[in-house]
Amino acid sequence: MHVICLDLEGVLVPEIWIAFAEKTGLPELKRTTRDEPDYDKLMKYRIDILNHNGLKLKDIQEVIGSMEPLPGAKEFAAAVRSITQLVILSDTFTQFAKPLMEKLDYPTLFCNTLEIDSGGAVAGYTLRQKDGKKKAVAAFKEMNLKVMAAGDSYNDLGMITTADTGAFFRAPESIKNSYADIPAYETYPELLEHIRNFIA
Q1: Could you say which DSSP state residue 150 is in?
Q2: Residue 90 is inside which H or E element, if any?
Q3: Per-residue confidence at 135, pLDDT binned at 50, 70, 90?
Q4: Rounded mean pLDDT of 14-30?
Q5: Of 9, 15, 91, 152, which residue is the catalytic one?
Q6: Is the distance from CB of 90 to CB of 98 less than 8 angstroms?
Q7: Could you tell me which residues are beta bridge partners of residue 122?
Q8: In 3D, which of 125, 100, 119 has the Cα closest to residue 58?
């Protein structure tokens, strides 16, 4: 049996923090895991900016509610689910993901949780587990599943290299060039062909 593990942001939906940065006019919030490999450092940086500017969870959720999956993503996810199991492994948060999961017809999602204070501000976050993407793929392999993983950022490397096969999808040139041995795709048909060949 096979399972396909995909990152969420940048692969199936736009980058939430970039969309929020554009909405609020705070370009410093455009920094993502494509730019910063240390996730803890990145999240502390983001939370400091939110609090400094008086931005609350509801402000972020308002922007997310207006977002749509990337063009072709819903159809791609449906095509994958028609041939095998699909699991989304993301460093996003349950408080962010629900409206986007609805628009993707509710694929299985493993992600993290934000800590919200009594005033509705983001106070911190709780990881589902440290290095959760890599450990999820390792656990699937322990269950004798064949795993393929794809993502676009530094925080996807663990799951991509742990999987039986992996690929980048729309990753920045800097990441692709640093890991030239990992296949890289730019379109959903290309990635779907990789998946079909893996399952065959």
Answers
A1: E
A2: strand 85-93
A3: very high
A4: 94
A5: 9
A6: no
A7: 116
A8: 119
- pLDDT band for 38, please (50, 70, 90 cuts): confident
142 is an active site residue: no
CATH architecture of 2-13+70-112+128-199: 3-Layer(aba) Sandwich (3.40)
Distance, in Å, from the CA atom of 132 to the CA atom of 185, rounded to the nearest integer, reads 24
Q: Where are the domains of the chain?
A: 2-13+70-112+128-199
CA dihedral 8, 12, 13, 17 (to 10 degrees): 40
Residue whose C-alpha is closest to residue 50's, from 20, 87, 5: 20
Tokens matching residue 25: 């006019």
Catalytically annotated residue among 7, 15, 91, 152: 7
Q: Is 173 a catalytic residue?
A: no
Specify whether the CB–CB gap between 169 and 11 falls below 8 A.
yes
Proportion of the chain in helix, strand, coil states, percent, rounded to 5: 50, 20, 30
